[in-house]
Amino acid sequence: MATPIYANGVRRAAILYHYPCPDGAFAALAAHLYFSATSTPAVFFPNTVYAPLRTVDLPLHQFDDVYLLDFVGPAGFVQEIASKVSRVIILDHHKTALKTLNGVDCHTGTNAVIADSIPELRSELGHQLATKSRNLNMRGIGAVVYKVPELENDEIVKISLRSIENEDTTPISQNFGGGGHRNASSFMSTVADFERWKVATVSS
Predict the structure, then answer these.
(1) pLDDT per position as a tens digit, 99-120
(2) Is 148 part of any domain?
(3) Contact indicator for 159, 186 with CB cutoff of 8 Å
(4) Which DSSP letter does residue 85 get?
């Protein structure tokens, strides 16, 4: 196993990045810049497809969060990690990741778009995103996010959910204090909470 790069000598977040793929390398660079800017300690592990890391290779008891960048690992890897840490955050654009994660209980699984300046298209966008989500083997729900000028607060956004077929949006909206109908509901959120919510996570 390659030697990990330690940041600040404190182990809290593990960053597993696809190596030697350029996408994985640049994702690791972006993560390094982010964690450095936020003074968040992180440990970086290169992860190859031909010899992927195993849970026994990682000191998972030292971490709160594990980030998987551009490679989710072999089947069952995410589930194993999720049982040992607080959160697993996945950023992977490969279609194969969806197949690997099939059956994993993810907190997100929808497509979202920010639509501050096009109110007349919000409902249609939501339905198109819901259809796209379904075609990607995710839940058939689309989220359209926009600011509400009447609130005069740029730190608050409204998240409007649209769904297709029998997907019920109301449990999500009600969980965040909102409501509506099965195929159309909404809720309010702070911008900070939305930034956290829109990142795909898997919890133990």
Answers:
(1) 666 655 554 445 555 555 556 6
(2) yes
(3) yes
(4) S
- In DSSP notation, 107-125 reads S---EEEE-SS-GGGHHHH
Instruction: Identify the H or E element spanning 191.
Output: helix 191-197
Write out the residue range of the structural domain in which residue 159 sits: 112-197
Number of domains in the chain: 2
CATH number, position 30: 3.40.50
Domain-located, residue 25: yes
| 86-98 pLDDT, tens digit each | 888 888 777 667 6
The structure tokens 């689309």 sit at: 142
Phi/psi of residue 175, each to 5°? Answer: -65, -25
Q: 157 by DSSP, 3-state: which?
A: strand
14 in Cβ contact with 43 (< 8 Å): yes
Q: Are residues 131 and 186 in the same domain?
A: yes
Mention every residue, 6+ apart, whose C-beta is less than 8 A from residue 174: 185, 187
Sign of CA dihedral 3, 7, 10, 13: negative
Task: Band the pLDDT of 3: cuts 50, 70, 90.
Answer: very low
Strands (E), the chain: 5-6, 13-18, 42-47, 65-69, 87-91, 111-114, 141-147, 156-163, 179-180, 184-190, 201-203
| pTM over the 0.90 mark | no
In angstroms, the Cα distances linking 154 to 149, 168, 191 are 8, 29, 8
